[in-house]
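Rotation project, supervised by the postdoc (A.L.). Task for the rotation student: set up a whole-complex structure prediction and record inputs and outputs verbatim in this book. Inputs entered:
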Amino acid sequence: MDIQLDKAPCGYFSISDSGSILTINQTLLDMLLYERHELLGRHIESVMSVTNKLFFHTYFYPYIQMHGHVNEMYISLRTNAQQDLPVLLNGVRQQRDGETVIDCVAVVMRKRIEHERDILHSKTKLEELYQATNEANQKLEILHEEYELKQQELIRINLQLETMAATDPLTGLHNRRFFQVSLLTQLLSFRETGEPFSLLIIDIDHFKRINDTFGHPAGDAVLVHLARLLESMAREPDIIARFGGEEFVVILPGTDQDDAILTAEKYRSAIASSSCGEHTITVSIGASTVCHGDTDETLLHQADTALYASKSSGRDRVTHSKQLVAAQD
Amino acid sequence: MTDNILVRNNVNVIGTGTQTIVFAHGFGCDQTMWRHVVPNFISDYQVVLFDYVGSGQSQINDYDPVKYSNLQGYAQDVLEILDALALKNVIFVGHSVSSMIGLLASLRGGSEYFERIVMIGPSPRYMNDLPDYYGGFEKSDIDELLTMMQLNFIGWASYLAPIVMQNPERQELTEELEQSFCSRDPRIARQFAEVTFLSDCRSSLSEATVPTLILQCSQDSIAPVEVGQYLHAHLKNSTLQQMAAKGHYPQLSHPDETTRLIKAYLASK
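Outputs recorded:
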């Protein structure tokens, strides 16, 4: 062998197609701690550990047979002192003197392999971390989904509670609390826009008599009947509520005094001409219409005074608070 | 479905003959490893070549880590290929781990699929189970092999693992890297290595009935002589043929001897 190749700063060897060592340079012999005659003619496996034999056979050999070369393969050789010698291997399969040979160079990679192992270690850690992050994210997503579901459920229950809290259980109309909030809203809106609205208080005449004579179930039936009738006559923006006992209130948005009287009169006559089973009822109505300076209390008070006037002047009639003021004038 | 299977496993059918020979490659390889012996058969036989899913030019997207978590998944594919080609009574030539895949397929599908099986460098179990069984390897050797694979795949394994998981569509990476080794995906290569080297088919041997030729190489460090002898002793209707060929790839290193022994076995009745 040419001295330059024999002492080149890398291991060099060539093997036959069946794996026998044909040539080996001094550098590799020094690396492996063998004399040349000890290795020539031996199978390349004899300088490999069990694992490296396996790797050599599953990768190096079939690959070089199929592709004619192998580049940068890390493999570990076994020295005469049974030490591992990690090398980076390049091989080429070629024809020489009518024979097919596999020529290889091997460069020791002791420092480099430590570095590679570090990278492998980091990579493994990274993958574990990645997986852990993924799993944690999935858990979070599930939690978030559960949270959303629960929140929707809460919103649903709240809505239900709110409806219940604003509803009169007997008639299904809005209750007094709801009415009071609505009245304040209307007042605010009036202060902003100047758009008038009116308020009716409707009271069933001689209701106590129905209750006392026919019992509470009959009384309740009358209340429900009246509620349905009012609902059927109301416009979209009107707010009807049960104020308490046999008293109902109606807020009529966008309605001035004259229209309020007309509407109240329409209610009154419809109620008087309808029948609830064997009972016929009449109502007395007091109306008021918002003016500057009015509060919820003054409006209610005016309507209540008007109602009192309807009652005391014979029932089954409509009185607007302004009519009282006019009469007093 | 039939076409899918033929594409999935990159199935190639060549040659003329009434009898069919299926050549099945081993771990870390693909069907090109049969190129020195196939020409010797095509004038007398119909020859079927294929790549296992994850190897060669198979459809890598069909790789299912659950299905291929043991050799049965591969055995099922062999049967699916035979069904897709409407083949029965084939001669199955399996190299290395494919020998056991062929044997499992014959148990799974019924012996009518296989007339004979030729096993080249077979092993029913690579790991030792001393004192009863010598396979040639300790568990630590296999673990070290897996580490060595990782170190050799590192350039792309470390680069790919987190990225591919998020960008399965980055086909160009896969294509660029598949040239580096015989396997296109380091995770597939690793699982195939685990499935192969941790497999244990010893309990299936007694059920096999298909006549089998065991081609035992000399000085085969992957499937040592003791393993060939064990197989012969436990496989009914088996013939053990010692080869002059050394190593684990006689079809590459000694194609003439490999061809001669297979043909002689097929000629015998």
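Student's summary: The first strand of chain B starts at residue 12 and ends at 14.
Supervisor addendum: Chain B has one domain: 2-126+203-267.
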